[in-house]
Automatic annotation (TrEMBL):
<comment type="pathway">
    <text>Protein modification; protein ubiquitination.</text>
</comment>
<dbReference type="InterPro" id="IPR016024">
    <property type="entry name" value="ARM-type_fold"/>
</dbReference>
<dbReference type="InterPro" id="IPR003613">
    <property type="entry name" value="Ubox_domain"/>
</dbReference>
<keyword id="KW-0808">Transferase</keyword>
<feature type="domain" description="U-box">
    <location>
        <begin position="284"/>
        <end position="358"/>
    </location>
</feature>
<dbReference type="InterPro" id="IPR013083">
    <property type="entry name" value="Znf_RING/FYVE/PHD"/>
</dbReference>
<protein>
    <recommendedName>
        <fullName>RING-type E3 ubiquitin transferase</fullName>
        <ecNumber>2.3.2.27</ecNumber>
    </recommendedName>
</protein>
<dbReference type="InterPro" id="IPR045210">
    <property type="entry name" value="RING-Ubox_PUB"/>
</dbReference>
<dbReference type="Pfam" id="PF04564">
    <property type="entry name" value="U-box"/>
</dbReference>
<dbReference type="Pfam" id="PF25598">
    <property type="entry name" value="ARM_PUB"/>
</dbReference>
<dbReference type="GO" id="GO:0016567">
    <property type="term" value="P:protein ubiquitination"/>
</dbReference>
<dbReference type="GO" id="GO:0061630">
    <property type="term" value="F:ubiquitin protein ligase activity"/>
</dbReference>
<dbReference type="Pfam" id="PF25368">
    <property type="entry name" value="PUB10_N"/>
</dbReference>
<dbReference type="InterPro" id="IPR000225">
    <property type="entry name" value="Armadillo"/>
</dbReference>
<keyword id="KW-0677">Repeat</keyword>
<keyword id="KW-0833">Ubl conjugation pathway</keyword>
<dbReference type="InterPro" id="IPR057623">
    <property type="entry name" value="PUB12-19-like_N"/>
</dbReference>
Amino acid sequence: MERPLSPLHSLPPESTAGVTLSGLLPPASLIESLLHASAYLATLDSLPLLQTRNTAAAIQRARVISSLLEDLHDSTSRGRRSLPISSILCLTELSSVIQRTKTLLDDLASGSALWSLLNAEASAKRFLSCTRELSAVLDILPLSLLPISSDIREQIELLHRQSKNAGSDLFVDSREIHLRDELLCIMAKEKGFLDFNKVEEVMSRIGLRTAAAYQEEIKKLEAEILKQAGTGGLMAVSNINNLITFVSYAKNIIFRSSKSDAFPKALSRSSSWSVATSPAIASNIPDEFRCPITLDLMKDPVVLASGHTYDRSSISRWINSGHQTCPKSGQKLIHMALIPNYNLKSLFEQWCKENNLSSTLRHRAPDSAAEEAVTVDHISATRAAIEAVRMTAEFLVGKLAMGSPETQRQAAYELRLLAKSGMENRRIIAEAGAIPFLVTLLGSRDPRTQENAVTALLNLSIFEKNKTLIMAAGALDSIVKVLREGELMEARENAAATIFSLSILNECKVEIGKTVEAVAGLVELLQDGTSAGKRDAATALLNLAVYDPNKTAVVEAGAVPVLVELLMDEKAGITDDVLAVLALLCGCKEGMRVIGDDKAAVAILVDLMRFGSEKGKENAIAVLMGLCKDGGAEMGRRLLMNARSVPSLQSLAASGSMRARRKANALLRLLNRCFSQSNSAPI
């Protein structure tokens, strides 16, 4: 019998010519696609007023890459030489980097300039991430094997060095930070007159120089609201709404004409103003200060989840009548919180002063049981503020104890919001005795009450001492029941998140792990939940599996087949979390046996070694290492039979992270032993 070649022996580059990889574009199509994308970036010549240096650097890199691709396209299209497989994999990764860079530049070009300015660091981090990814691709690009000219090779080597250097530091332009500080200082003025010459100067420096530009900026901010509202970003929505109000007000002031002056410059100092008694003046109130429902002046403006502002009394009546949509946009509301729009109120008071009018803003007293609950929107560190929170918490706990079902639902919701805003609040709410009553409400037949109660407990559990109090109140069984039987998916997801939060304490890990229903409920949510729910379930299982005795419980609950299936579900977006759980489950014999018995597991893990994230690659190797140690020569043969396993391990051993290199080398040695032991028989 002919002695087989060692699987660790690298094939010569020439042997890869003409080979295509399953799931990848043909080389010619890949190069054409890359050339088109990089050429698009390379031809960009008008730089934005923000992130100028980062954008210019990204475009310059695209131009160098475009030159490389033109050379490759010329060589391959004439059939002079084929590309090695390793370069095809690198070019596939390069395509992903270029696409992310294009998306970033498109976002900057089409997005709100003001929002980009306020989030300068976030944009800079996206540029840094693209630079680092490019550097990583160039690390493994086999330049010596590519049919390119020496000039192009030198340019790519220079680009590689520059990318490595640029990828070590985050660059945020100090001029943008200074400009942002100026803008925030202007917007922070709650009293007195705004210096509109200064406003106009700042706006001009970010590209807003005409009334049409202001109007376009407002549209872009409104589009940003839809993105943020869709992810539940309450503070972001409130901030964007404040920007819209500010831009609208500045536009009306800066570009007003004598013919259609919406803001009369001056009235007699003796003039007094009232909506009811001065209809002529009231007709000049800017639309921004009117409630979209009643068209009356907003006395207490609040922001809805959709991002639109209404008067509190009007929108409260709308919500209390059973509506769950925004009156203006028709958008379904993801929550019913009403966020005070202090900026709009401040701008209205300033408008009154500018026009010598007396402001008649005043808050309306609560007129229904559902509106009695107090929402604390800004908690200061003063003693008076802490006392106010204490009084609010005690008031709401009283409503939980003695109120009608409707009042209990509203009180649980207000406690949920109050517990979201700080550790001090969470401590005070627990001291007021809220936890036992919230645990009782977990058994409510009303889905919203149940959701509010479990979410309030989730927020309270963030404070470490409250974890013990929640467990002592006998909450676990009720939380598990919500996890498995809750009518609302949000309630089930938040129950899983609560279990994760509680399991941070070691003693809670033990108790939760012993509760078979808890682990089974997490596996069920992992299987049929939304993307967010699957992530919550996976992180909870990960935390529980850190404690060794819980590993067997997780395996016996049927987690492994579900986890392996999720590795193939790109929409779930939790590949790294799933791999981390599987790596932990390899710490018990039952876990290794079930993973090893899964026919698809090995092939998927090999693919993830090639295309996964850095952390994902490390965990994929860890799982394969555990399987080979447990399964011996048989598992080694299964791995060696996969043609992609050894090249992937060699690549990681050469250019992976420190942990990935160490694990890859260890697994290669293990496979070598398996190979040596199998030389006497065909593999």
